[in-house]
Design goal:
Radius of gyration: 20 Å
Number of helices: 14
Number of domains: 1
Low-confidence stretches: 342-353
Order of helices and strands: HEEHHHEEHHHHHHHHHH
Largest sheet: 2 strands, antiparallel
Helix content: 55-70%
Shape: globular
Structural class: mainly alpha
Distance between the termini: 63 Å
Length: 353
Amino acid sequence: MTDYFIVFLIPIILSYLLTPLAKYTAKKIGAIDVPKDDRRVHKVPIPRLGGLAIYLATIISMFIFLEDIDKSIISIMIGGTIIVITGIIDDVKPISARWKLFFQILSALVLVMGDIRIEYIGNPFVKNSVINLGMFSIPVTIFWTIGITNTLNLIDGLDGLSAGVGAIAAVSLFFVAASIDFIDTTMVMILCAIIAGSAFGFLPHNFNPAKIFMGDTGALFLGFMLSVVAMEGVMKSVATITIVVPILALGLPIFDTTFAIIRRVINKRPIGEADKGHVHHRLLDKGLSQKQAVLILYMVSAIFGSAAVLMAGLKPGYGVIVVGIILTLLFLGAARFGILGVVDIKKKNREKR
């Protein structure tokens, strides 16, 4: 475990030291976040290229700690670099969603060419059995990569939120991978430690009041890397609830994104339209400060992560029951808290009367 601590510590130091360089670069190239609408919580212009520090700390640490830089590792580096370049361009001058999607698909295809893909998922109805995806392996891999890549970006609304949640998810996936004893997960555990360290090293600069934002550069890169470690580690297990474990580890951003889609459908709004219905907005509406809201969401993310680690060791039958309970409580809580938009609709109906 001492070796993994070093793997965790080095990217913390690198990310912390590289962030001022990212801040300087952001100012030079004009990657500044200027608040233009009421969705923005901050009120003054802030540099937003902090993700560059996270990326550099991750890549440097990969070269230091990964002994075998094989085809799969190279594909991760290339795919991550494509994501980061796209993020840098967008942080300087926003590009269209179509171009973002194009480059995200390209990065996912790079992973596929590096033999990183979801080839099967656990069969919840047959013990120690899997469902081979066959020809659907590539589209499922692309869908998973793009989906997870964007989830952290969508919750990046408060100082330190995405970086902290991403780090907690990486730590959770580290312990899940460590619990798998029938395949070698050393590479995945190293990657998880590197990702967590790089995100934690950035946090002192990003926690409220933030001196720099990670921007799309960091949020998309962190999401991309988390999608990779989930595929390479957890999903290569033959446990019957394999697919549920990474979803729980990434629970906060995944469910917040899912609820956002449901909310917009219910309210007959475009799915891609931004709103103030995300969970962090609701916490602020309840009178909490940024710091309080972020710390609560860190705790929620840690609970999801702990559930993922516990789930990895449960028998399939118990796992399915636990998942059912969690999903039921989530939807009831989301509806009651107004995250699904149900509360807003009821208020509008009362106002009409």
